[in-house]
């Protein structure tokens, strides 16, 4: 077998392993960030398609999961905005999952954060990323990731106090 | 229980309760393969057009511009915070199209001699104080026209912005300006460690990479929508990188 053919076969197997292992956690992280499960499902498939398309490069990234998350998030933000302009829905997307949240008060105040703030919270507390990894994922300095999480936590605390 | 623990527990439980749609690896692979082929074909066509153009040009007049490698790929970006227009540009060898940035291409490097970004964005509002920016967004927000934004940059940021001059990019008229970050500033002293410029329609913002950074902007009216095309670099940028940057800017084609 030609070396290049063998290398391509290995890359495909490598991508398949990555897809099987990391698709679900990234989907869940996106769903909680976007608070829209349908949009998150489309976003993770779009991001995975782009990863496949350029897997030769993406497979060398230190934080592949973070890359997928960012591509999916950016795609969803653009797509979501367009959809909001074009489609009038009869119920908010997150209503479908309201009955499945373990801490309704916290769920509600998380929804009041900006998507960017929620992204940092989800990457830190759900995907267990370090500040360096969050920085890689969102392409911001680690110090900025830390300060965004700080501000988000302060805001969550304030909103929970108000809700009492 | 600390708030961090509460958030972590909530997200773990909420995540576990989400049902994950069934995987479809074959569909992902098939779409990825199709796009890869399309991109290769598009790059080939773009390179062919450029080579033919270069040959014709070389036969008609002597070249006065720095020698830059022929572009090896194309990128299509959409301004941050918008769904249109599409900006197509040709990338020289060594440049990367980072799709993850969804509207930003760069020569990835931390070396100020080669660090270059070219991108596009919407602008929703600007911060009057770019360092201690909390609570300083203009109120009322900057207006929707090219002149509104150009005037705001020039009047609010004072020496941080040059006077706007008329400019045209790919046939679309607007204003060109140069925005600068002070050289004697420590970003650690700024709110959140960020030196900011403007907010866009995504709800977030433009923040800079370091003191002394220079940003050239073209504020354009594209069929009634205001967009901003920008390129960022440091004063140390090499002549070669500068020539490549100019080539990228000049190759921009805007499709409303």
Helix content of chain B: 25-40%
Largest beta sheet: strand ordering of chain B: 3-4-5-12-11-8-7
Strand content of chain A: under 5%
Largest sheet of chain B: 7 strands, antiparallel
| Average predicted confidence as pLDDT of chain A | 83
Strand portion of chain B = 25-35%
Number of E-type strands of chain B: 13
The secondary-structure element order of chain B is: HHEEEEEEHEEEEEEHE
Q: How many helix segments of chain A?
A: 8
Low-confidence stretches of chain B are: 60-67
Please tell me what the overall shape of chain A is.
elongated
Order of helices and strands of chain A: HHHHHHHH
Rg over C-alpha atoms of chain A, rounded to the nearest angstrom: 18 Å
Describe it for me?
The complex is a heterodimer of chains A (164) and B (256). With 164 residues, chain A is mainly alpha-helical. Chain A contains eight helices and no strands. Chain A is elongated, with a radius of gyration of 18 Å. By secondary structure, chain B is an alpha+beta fold. Chain B is 29% helix and 26% strand. Classes of the chains: A mainly alpha (164), B alpha+beta (256). Chains A and B meet through helix 1, helix 2, helix 4, helix 5 and helix 6 of A and helix 1 and helix 2 of B.
């Amino acid at each position: 077998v030609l070396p290049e053919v063998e290398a391509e076969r290995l890359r495909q197997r490598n991508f398949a392993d990555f897809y099987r292992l990391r698709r679900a956690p990234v989907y869940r992280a996106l769903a909680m960030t976007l608070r829209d499960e349908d949009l998150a499902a489309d976003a993770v498939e779009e991001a995975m398609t782009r990863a496949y398309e350029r897997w030769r490069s993406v497979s060398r990234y230190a934080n592949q999961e973070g890359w997928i998350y960012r591509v999916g998030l950016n795609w969803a933000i653009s797509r979501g905005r367009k959809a909001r302009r074009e489609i009038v829905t009869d119920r908010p997307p997150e209503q479908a999952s309201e009955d499945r949240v373990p801490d309704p008060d916290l769920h509600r105040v998380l929804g009041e954060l900006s998507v960017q703030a929620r992204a940092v919270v989800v990457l830190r507390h759900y995907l267990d990323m370090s500040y360096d990894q969050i920085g890689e994922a969102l392409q911001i300095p680690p110090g900025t990731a830390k300060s965004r999480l700080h501000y988000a936590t302060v805001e969550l605390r304030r909103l929970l106090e108000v809700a009492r | 229980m600390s708030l961090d623990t509460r958030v972590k527990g909530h997200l773990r439980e909420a995540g576990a309760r989400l049902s994950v749609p069934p995987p479809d690896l074959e569909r992902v692979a098939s779409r990825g393969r199709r796009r890869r082929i399309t991109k290769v074909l598009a790059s080939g066509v773009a390179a062919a057009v450029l080579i033919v153009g270069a040959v014709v040009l070389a036969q008609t007049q002597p070249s006065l511009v720095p020698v830059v490698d022929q572009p090896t790929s194309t990128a299509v970006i959409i301004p941050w915070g918008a769904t249109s227009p599409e900006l197509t540009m040709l990338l020289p060898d060594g440049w990367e199209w980072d799709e993850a940035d969804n509207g930003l291409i760069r020569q990835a490097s931390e070396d100020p001699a080669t660090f270059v970004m070219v991108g596009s964005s919407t602008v929703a509002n600007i911060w009057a104080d770019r360092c201690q920016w909390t609570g300083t967004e203009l109120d009322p927000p900057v207006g929707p026209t090219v002149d509104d934004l150009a005037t705001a940059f020039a009047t609010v940021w004072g020496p941080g912005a040059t006077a706007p001059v008329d400019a045209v990019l790919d046939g679309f008229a607007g204003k060109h300006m140069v925005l600068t970050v002070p050289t004697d500033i420590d970003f650690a002293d700024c709110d959140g460690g960020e030196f900011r410029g403007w907010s866009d329609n995504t709800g977030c913002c433009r923040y800079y990479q370091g003191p002394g950074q220079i940003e050239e902007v073209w504020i354009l009216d594209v069929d009634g929508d205001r967009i901003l095309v920008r390129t960022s670099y440091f004063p140390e940028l090499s002549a070669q990188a500068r020539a490549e940057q100019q080539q990228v800017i000049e190759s921009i084609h805007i499709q409303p």
